[in-house]
């Protein structure tokens, strides 16, 4: 009996030790799990996260730069488009200013022509120059008024400074004007200061000469030359030009060599005043 009792006691002790061992393993497992999760794995997870963040930074940096470049390109493109629009608007404004300035200048010229018209107290009409004969031996302009406007052959043509020429050809809606500088032009004139008579002849680009003024007659540089009215074409008293020089002549010549500069800048006129002759007032 004592032996059996002893065996039973040993069995109980063995089972108790096994239970304690299992309990110890269980507790150790929980402890190890806790350690791995919260102590051992934490640094590893942190390192992996750092590495991942760095990789993401390296990978995302080119795309970030590309986005910035694309954004800069779009902004630059918008700036260029805005600059182009501003340039167009500026060009339009400059054209408007030029148009207004031209209108103002034209208005001033027309006012001067109207003042001449009032002083002359003669029926007249304003014409605009639309063509120029550039041949060196001719000085002819084309204007935009003709027979339908009352223009007649040989009608005197004036501008702001004085006599321009006369009508040599008339169409329905246009006319041709021979300038006083044309080689075929002849105008009966006088020197206003001393009433000396002569004939004004055109010599092309060089201007005009005052011919048939006898030697000994006092003519001076700067003398004003006006129409005499004896040719039956130009009314008396129209300003023609001023004496620019008097060339010496030899003893055998009868007349003086007198050059005259026209009162009108014939190269820059744009409008003219045509006197209406042989018409009822």
Describe what is shown at a glance.
With 281 residues, the protein is an alpha+beta fold. It has one helix at residues 2-120, and strands at 124-133, 140-143, 156-158, 163-170, 175-179, 186-191, 197-202, 208-211, 224-227, 239-247, 257-262, 271-275.
How many separate domains?
A: 2
The total strand number stands at 12
- What is the CATH homologous superfamily assignment of the largest domain? Rod shape-determining protein MreC, domain 1
Termini, distance in Å?
Answer: 174 Å
Strand order in the largest sheet: 1-2-5-4-3-12
Helix vs. strand class: alpha+beta
Shape: rod-shaped
Order of helices and strands: HEEEEEEEEEEEE
At the first level of CATH, the class of the largest domain is Mainly Beta
- Helix count from the secondary structure assignment: 1
Please summarize the sheet with the most strands.
6 strands, antiparallel, barrel
Could you report the average pLDDT, rounded to the nearest whole number? 79
Name the helicity range: 40-55%
Radius of gyration: 55 Å
Can you tell me the residue ranges where pLDDT is under 50 for at least 5 consecutive residues? Answer: none
User: What's the CATH architecture of the largest domain?
Assistant: Beta Barrel
What is the CATH fold-level name of the largest domain? Thrombin, subunit H
Q: What proportion strand?
A: 15-25%
């Amino acid at each position: 009996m004592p032996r059996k009792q002893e065996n039973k006691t040993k069995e109980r002790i063995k089972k108790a030790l096994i239970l304690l061992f299992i309990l110890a393993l269980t507790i150790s497992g929980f402890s190890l799990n806790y350690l791995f999760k919260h102590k051992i794995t934490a640094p590893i997870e942190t390192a992996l996260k750092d590495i991942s963040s760095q990789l993401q930074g390296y990978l995302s940096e080119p795309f970030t730069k590309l986005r910035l470049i694309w954004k800069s390109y779009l902004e630059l493109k918008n700036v260029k488009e805005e600059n182009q629009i501003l340039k167009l608007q500026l060009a339009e404004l400059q054209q408007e200013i030029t148009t207004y300035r031209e209108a103002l200048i034209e208005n001033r010229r027309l006012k001067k022509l109207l003042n001449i018209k009032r002083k002359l107290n003669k029926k007249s009409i304003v014409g605009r120059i639309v063509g120029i004969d550039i041949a060196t031996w001719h000085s002819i302009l084309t204007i935009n008024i003709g027979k339908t406007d009352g223009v007649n052959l040989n009608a005197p043509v004036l501008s702001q400074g004085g006599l321009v020429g006369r009508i040599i050809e008339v169409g329905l809606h246009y006319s041709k004007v021979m300038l006083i500088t044309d080689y075929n032009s002849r105008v009966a004139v006088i020197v206003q200061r001393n009433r000396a008579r002569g004939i004004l002849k055109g010599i092309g680009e060089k201007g005009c000469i005052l011919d048939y003024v006898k030697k000994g007659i006092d003519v001076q540089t700067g003398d004003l030359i006006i129409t005499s009215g004896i040719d039956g074409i130009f009314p008396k008293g129209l300003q023609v030009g001023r004496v620019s020089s008097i060339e010496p002549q030899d003893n055998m010549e009868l007349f003086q060599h007198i050059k005259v500069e026209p009162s009108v800048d014939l190269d820059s006129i744009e409008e003219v005043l045509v006197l209406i002759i042989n018409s009822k007032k």
